[in-house]
Specification:
This protein has 2 helices and 8 strands, in the order E-H-E-E-E-E-H-E-E-E. The protein has 125 residues and is of the alpha/beta class. The chain has a single domain, classed as 2,3-Dihydroxybiphenyl 1,2-Dioxygenase, domain 1, CATH 3.10.180. The strands form 2 sheets. The protein has a 4-stranded mixed beta sheet with strand order 1-4-3-2, covered by helices on one side. A hairpin with a 5-residue loop joins strand 7 and strand 8. Helix 1 packs antiparallel against helix 2. The two termini are 24 Å apart.
């Protein structure tokens, strides 16, 4: 249903230093950089599903209140790696990796701008 998402970034280099390992832990990579934009997605995707960019209104990037971006993980190990990569690259913990009942295995972090992110492995079965 969603074609892509954009995440505001005032400092693209700093944002890429965070998102390269965090999204890489989930099997994605930086596909391109053009000006103040960078695109991430799976190998072979030419456009990208997650785009980093300077805000169009030229105001500072800020986290959206009530917005959370959830990234799919295939395994618990990917969720753990996502969480560890976020903390090692300037992110903060919003919830340790673990089972969340019927929701599956999840971890929650905030990026350096304050955007809330999660990685989740759907429930088994």
């Amino acid at each position: 249903m969603i074609s892509y998402i954009t995440i505001g970034a005032d400092d693209l280099d700093k944002a890429m230093a965070f998102y390269d390992p965090v999204l890489g832990a989930l099997g994605n990579k930086r596909l391109w950089v053009q000006g103040t934009w960078a695109g991430y997605g799976p190998e072979g995707d030419s456009h990208g599903k997650v785009l980093l960019c300077a805000p169009h209104d030229e105001q500072p990037a800020r986290a959206g209140n009530g917005i959370m971006i959830g990234f799919h993980a295939e395994t618990d190990e990917q969720v753990n790696a996502f969480h560890a990569a976020a903390l090692a690259n300037g992110g903060t913990c919003e919830g340790e990796p673990g089972e969340r009942g019927e929701f599956g295995y999840l971890a929650y972090v905030r990026d350096p701008t304050g955007n809330k992110l999660s990685a989740f492995r759907r429930p088994k079965g």
